Amino acid sequence: MKLYTKTICPKCLWVKSELQQAGLSADWINIDNDTAAMERIQQAGFSSVPILEVNGELIGDIPNILSKIEAMQA
Fold first, then answer.
1. 64: helix, coil or strand?
2. DSSP, res 28
3. What one-character DSSP code corresponds to residue 49?
4. Integer Cα distance of 74 and 44 in angstroms
5. Angle between the 62-73 and 10-21 helix axes, to the nearest 10 degrees?
6. Given a cut of 90, is residue 41 above it in pLDDT?
């Protein structure tokens, strides 16, 4: 699982906190420092972070991310 973030991103920190509370971990990928990752999420049609990647699926809407986290901890 990967979490695409930016250097300054309160929503990214919120999602990270939700992952930690659920007992889940993800690799953090800062798109400010990773051009290839930034291009990947842009090509997938996303223009903002956080983006959660689970099994190759990119999820960019906060409510959908939180739903996915909830489903994974069940």
1. helix
2. E
3. S
4. 28
5. 10
6. yes
Q: Find the helix or strand (DSSP H, E) in which 3 lies.
A: strand 2-5
pLDDT of residue 25: 92
**Euclidean distance between CA atoms 5 and 57, whole angstroms:** 16
Question: What's the pLDDT tens digit per position in 28-38?
Answer: 999 999 999 99
Contact status, residue 2 vs residue 53, Cβ threshold 8 Å: yes
Distance CA 60, CA 41 (A): 9
Instruction: Give the pTM.
Output: 0.92
pLDDT digits (tens, 9 = 90+) for 4-14: 999 999 999 99
Which tokens hold the place of 72?
Answer: 């994974």
